[in-house]
Amino acid sequence: MAVRAVRGATQVEADDRDQILEATTELVSEVMSRNELSTDDVISVIFTTTPDLAAEFPALAARKLGFHEVPLLCASEIAVPGALPRVIRLMAHIETDLPRADVQHVYLRGATALRLDIAQ
């Protein structure tokens, strides 16, 4: 098995706890599904939010999905002028037999604009 990193991002309409949890749940679920992962395959997950999101920790959504023994970390992105607002990002470190080229990175909602080359 190899260690790989999976990237993903999503966007919410407002700095609202329920929206952050819903969007993060959707994002984590899609990353897990598209890469055929279980929580046992996940080494750790780093979540970031743009500085305009502070109503909730995105990691809470992962905990509610069963990531009880997975180390999770939340951080704030740097405030780059003109950057896409209200974005939640993740980088998950996983153990998988997938070749690097077959790892499915997931960009949802308005965050598809961040990576038009790989957004589904």
Kindly estimate the percentage of residues that lie in beta strands according to DSSP: 25-35%
Give the assembly state of these chains.
single chain
Structural class: alpha/beta
Helix amount: 10-25%
Strands, total number: 5
Report how far apart the termini are: 26 Å
Q: Kindly report the average pLDDT value.
A: 95
Q: Biggest sheet, in brief?
A: 5 strands, mixed
Described by the principal axes of the CA atoms, the overall outline is globular
Keywords summarizing the entry:
120 residues; alpha/beta; 5-stranded mixed sheet; 2 helices
Quick synopsis:
This protein has 120 residues and is an alpha/beta fold. It has 2 helices and 5 strands; from the N terminus they run E-H-E-H-E-E-E.
How would you explain this protein's 3D organization?
This protein has two helices and five strands. It is of the alpha/beta class. The radius of gyration is 14 Å and the shape is globular. The two termini are 26 Å apart.
Write the layout of secondary structure elements.
Layout: E1 2-11, H1 17-34, E2 42-49, H2 59-64, E3 72-76, E4 87-96, E5 106-107
Parallel strand pairs: 1-5, 2-3
Antiparallel strand pairs: 1-4, 2-4
